[in-house]
Amino acid sequence: TSLTLVSNHWLMAWMGLEINTLAIIPMMTYPNNMRNTESAIKYFLMQATASMIIMFAIIYNAWMTNQWTLFQVSNEWATMFMTLALAMKLGLAPFHFWVPEVTQGIPLTSGMILLTWQKIAPTSILYQISPSLNMNLLILLAVSSTLLGGWGGLNQTHLRKILAYSSITHMGWMTVIVLINPSLTILNLLIYIAATMAIFLCLNLTSTTKINALSNLWNKSAPMTITLMIILLSLGGLPPLTGFMPKWLILQELIIYNNITTAMLLAFSALLNLFFYMRIIYTSTLTMFPSNNSSKFQWFHSSPKPTSLIPSMTIISAMLLP
Hints:
GO terms for molecular function: NADH dehydrogenase (ubiquinone) activity. The protein is an all-alpha fold and 322 residues long. The protein has helices at residues 2-6, 10-28, 34-65, 76-90, 98-105, 108-115, 120-128, 135-152, 159-177, 182-206, 217-220, 222-236, 244-256, 260-285, 298-301, 309-318.
């Protein structure tokens, strides 16, 4: 990731993406079983395909323009192939099918890295070549990602799949604004990474992977339940929490540049995401576990030791805006 971030030459940036892909494969297959291996192979195939398309776009651009500088992609076809390849790497629609499948098949820690850290390198390339991108293609990718990410998450019961569809939606929000105001893409990415890492850390600490298991979360850790609720509301973009800020600024920029239809579609698609976030919140905080056991309030006697990252991530992702 660092190699891609600091590179000025296309081959070095491509090399960083390749090493980044190969380095996460052992982490994804660490508890060696069939599901992890299958997910790792799916991830590798998609990333390798995207890398080859990037290499084709690099060579084609160098052949037409006679230069290898990262910031100058002046050829229209090279730009289009580069955009589609980065969309495959980021999991934008219509190349989004691998994201829920891979995230569902790997452990929570690997899923957290996949949905946060692995987005940095492709987004940095998209940010650097943003002046030469095609606006119509970006809007098509972004709107389809937000709509399909919202619709796809509605009928899911696995939390990792829900967070994967949430990732697809947030990548759409970042893509739509990268040509108009690239700084907002970076702001959205940082807030999304903070919120998603906090959710994954909460779920990992309580070993929760399904929605129906959340109904007993208050029994395990009441503070964790409140934390999860606040972070989910922030990720959904509810004011006055932090997640509202990038959505507000992106919609404002789109309206200033007369993209009213795009802004309306993005705003409506945000309601789909908010619906399945609210379903998680309802299950975890407003329903009681259907049992009459005498061992309630486990957290009162021995709560799980919270990691030091969770409070800081909560503050960043949920309480920065006020």
